[in-house]
Amino acid sequence: MGKHAPKSRKVKIQNRLSEVHEIELLEEWIESGKPESGSNPLSLEPLPHKAPVGRLPDGSFSRYAGCDRFSQLPVSKKTKDGLTQCKYKTMTDIQRASLPHSLCGRDILGAAKTGSGKTLAFVIPVLEKLYKARWGPEDGVGCIIMSPTRELAGQLFEVLKSVGKHHGFSAGLLIGGRKDVDAEKEHVNGLNILVCTPGRLLQHMDETPNFDCSQLQVQEQVLVLDEADRILDVGFKRDLNAIISQLPKHRQTLLFSATQTKSVQDLARLSLKDPEYLGVHEESDTATPNRLQQTAMLVPLDKKFDMLWSFIKAHLNSRILVFLSSCKQVKFVFETFKKLRPGIPLKCLHGRMKQDRRMGIYSQFCEQRSVLFSTDVASRGLDFNKAVDWVVQVDCPEDCAAYIHRVGRTARYLSGGRSVLFVMPSEMKILEKLEEKKIPLRVIKANEKRIQSVSDLLASLLVKYPDLQHLAQRAFVTYLKSIHKQRDKEIFDVTKLPIDEFSASLGLPMTPKIRFLKQKLKGKTVSEALSLIPENTSNDNLLEFPIKEPEFPIKDPDAGKSDVEEVDEDILLAKETQEGGENINSKGDDMYVNYFSDLSIRCVELFSFKQDGISLAEWICWLATRVTKKKKLKINVHRPVGTRVVFDEEGNTLPPLARLAASSSGADSVQLNKEKVNQRYAELRKNLKVADKEDKDLDRKRRKEKRIKEKMKNKRGREEEEEEDEELSGSDMETPRGRVDKKTKIYFDSDDEDGERRGDMAKKEGIAADAISLAEQEELALKLLNSMHS
Ligand SMILES: Nc1ncnc2c1ncn2[C@@H]1O[C@H](COP(=O)(O)OP(=O)(O)OP(=O)(O)O)[C@@H](O)[C@H]1O
């Protein structure tokens, strides 16, 4: 870590001897004053500042458990020099409580409020452990420090570099999003301390030749998880399990977070040995820093941007960190507000930005007053130079832990800070939950007179910049999706949101379609589905779903009957309806057709209501197919265009040649001129062929266009959904690896493709019925021509 000038051999030997001597002394000192297992050194009186430190004249050692200065700890001169140069003198509570235990080599579960100095509480024991083990470059990896986000890993790395600058260890920052992974692979084996995100570490474990962390076992070195509860969370489960399986069980493990896990299962996964649980602020009245003033304001969804805009305009001399729920929300607010020029620099930070830019924005925000719009990527661990004045939570955090971490970006160490949470009427439950967690919130009312509306300005921006309109649509959908995906349904209920008003507040002229909500409606009963629709929502606001050919088998009462039978059935139904008969089907048709057009036309493929023993979906599908069948019946495939249908005495249709036959068999019939007939039919055949070719070409073109359109639509839908999922899931944190690749798809664009495959494709695209009926028609037309000819 530190850079040293070349030294003579003699100096080197002298240094080594004094190091060996210092290490022996430190080990004796540590051993002599070990705090009792399970005790909290915070309860001990601090040593007087002027009391002698280290080996005392009587051969004993000074007490280090309970001391409150770094200089009183049994740590190396190199570490002490680093701390002094960084101006760290007095320990914070978590440092006082944990360092005496961790320096003895014990496993630690440390929990303390945000901004209370947890980083030094693990950086110091890491440096000391390697120093006492006389770890050198040839020894490989001696310590792994893991963080859930790249920015936080970068920040930890900086602290490690500055405090450890007098040590000779090599340390490396291994985080995703950096292009130089190959260069990293060449050097990673020579590193002693790895500061990393789980994904990148696992990548090296999988891909880098000879990358081996098994040395950790030889001398029981250190594994650190910062923001441990987040790393142990489901999002990182797979990566972490894979990493742990490659690490030896014998090691020192240090876990720190402001919201610590106590789950026995989690701790078992990490094989902790009798860990010291040090929750230093557990007895405190509040779970958040005392110097933090926290407020909450009731803001309806459609007024959020007005409120945010007004807030920014009222605090132009502050450094404001604004949390929104998705990357698209962040982008939208950033891009539009930037164009509206509020009078303060604006910045944005989210997981889909390039890593270099992310780092750049982070440091710029540390330097100057500005507004930073961010997703939860900035919610944990980041220490913005202790100078964030306001944390504004525009979108509700997913739980109390997320709230604590977000507001913890201000009021760090000894500084003060303020926060405001926008709460929607449907989210009021969060206030109760926060109160239960000892979070003191004052609910305040905004001064209506000072609220400036921004929706009209947004609407005109959207007209001027079409790209922004698309962004607004995406922001709209991803926001609703984020609410829909939240686990705590007591707080988050997408159906209670004023969707149209929200869309208008983004400046959108029309409410976009929300595909993902289909899932929510699936399998609901009529009343359940209706209860999902907000009371103040008009029919036009209901979610629109296109009517498709049903994909599941339909219980059609007519199944298996031929076309002729269908005609009969159809006529029967029509007759009975006309006569006002008591036919259940016809009544049912009326009832459901009304229902269909009134309310649920959009849901034909979604609902599976059980009504009168048959599901409504089945009914609706059955109706839909009947309509299609009726349409098909209008085309009598046996009859050439322009001929009349002739019925016999019993009302049955006669084949086209029957009339000729009948007339020719009559006694006083006129003998037909065979040549003329042949000529006539040749002409007809020719015309038919031309018409047939034109039809085929037209049909082929139409099918091709339909296929392309469908493909584009599907592709766009998939991309958008993937994008939304990425934005919402762990992508803001380090992207968990092992995600399934997009499936390779085979498209058959050419009309010359093999028929079977084309048939398959056509079926998938819902045009099977058309394709088959056309083939049938062609075949029948040819048969007819042939029979006429003969
Ligand atoms: N003993 C100390 N003396 C002075 N400043 C300190 C001390 N310990 C930590 N700090 C400063 O306090 C700030 C917060 O420290 P740190 O980032 O370690 O907090 P944290 O508890 O890890 O916060 P979070 O829970 O948000 O990750 C940093 O700016 C750090 O430099």
Automatic annotation (TrEMBL):
Its EC number is 3.6.4.13. Gene3D superfamilies: P-loop containing nucleotide triphosphate hydrolases. Residues 720-729 have a biased composition (Acidic residues). The keyword Transcription does not apply. Residues 68-96 form the DEAD-box RNA helicase Q domain. It catalyses: ATP + H2O = ADP + phosphate + H(+). Residues 709-762 are annotated as: Disordered. GO terms for molecular function: ATP binding; hydrolase activity; RNA binding; RNA helicase activity. Residues 99-278 form the Helicase ATP-binding domain. Residues 300-462 form the Helicase C-terminal domain. Residues 734-748 have a biased composition (Basic and acidic residues). InterPro entries: DEAD/DEAH_box_helicase_dom (IPR011545), Helicase_ATP-bd (IPR014001), Helicase_C-like (IPR001650), P-loop_NTPase (IPR027417), RNA-helicase_DEAD-box_CS (IPR000629), RNA_helicase_DEAD_Q_motif (IPR014014), SPB4-like_CTE (IPR025313). Keywords: ATP-binding, Helicase, Hydrolase, Nucleotide-binding, RNA-binding. The Q motif is unique to and characteristic of the DEAD box family of RNA helicases and controls ATP binding and hydrolysis. Belongs to the DEAD box helicase family. RNA helicase. This is ATP-dependent RNA helicase. It comes from Solanum verrucosum.
